Amino acid sequence: MGKTVRDLAAEDEKGAIDAIDGYAVGIDMTARNTQDEAKKKGLPWSIAKGFDTFLPMSNYIPKTAIPDPHNVELWLSVNDEVKQKDSTQLMLFPISRILAEISQCMTLEQGDVVLTGTPKGVGSVVVGDVVKTGLRVDGKDVEEGRIEVEVQEKGGPYEYKET
Length: 163
Known about the structure:
Mean pLDDT: 93
Oligomer: single chain
């Protein structure tokens, strides 16, 4: 976010876009085994999102590089096989509605990052997989939006165990 936003109206598209400083691409990972167990027990599953390396982010993308954020192609591949590829035109809600819903619950501050969702095709990865992602505007790759990461074992004393 480029500025503080509070109680934004869902129909205020200009206010929403004006509040955005720039963009980035993120890979929002989830430990499904941890999530599934917590859900079965009716417990919060936020830990399934919180492991080291679970949200790699691209470099900052200047707002000028994306003239219409509702018309961007996002893609993701695992081991060079495309798993996700779709347009932001397919988002269930426009950015103004997303920011309105958030800002009516909590104030968005300058520097906050808002994740808006993912295209269809979510799937599993294993240690050693190489995940790449990026975006295209008018058919051209936006280099600042590229990410390439190898899935790694966390290491350390934590061990997943069913309880």
